[in-house]
Model the fold of this input.
Amino acid sequence: MDKDRLNLAQNAIKKIAKRDGVSVNYVRKQMKISMLNGLSSTDPQIKQFWDSIPHEGEIPTPEELIIYIAEIVTHG
Done:
């Protein structure tokens, strides 16, 4: 994973935590819960979205999701 993009994703999580007055770990945990809900969907379109996210482990990390969505928003 590109270190610059990883740093940007980590900074985004830090900004959310600061904005909401919670810890970075709390933000990551809440993101993971939401991601697991999406990953367990039986809807074919939702499964296709989650399968399209590049990830190094078994499932995407919050940072990998942020990077992927940022690419979609930036490049269409």
User: Anything to note?
Assistant: Residues 3-75 form one domain. Residues 11 and 63 are 10 Å apart (CA to CA). The first helix runs from residue 3 to 20.
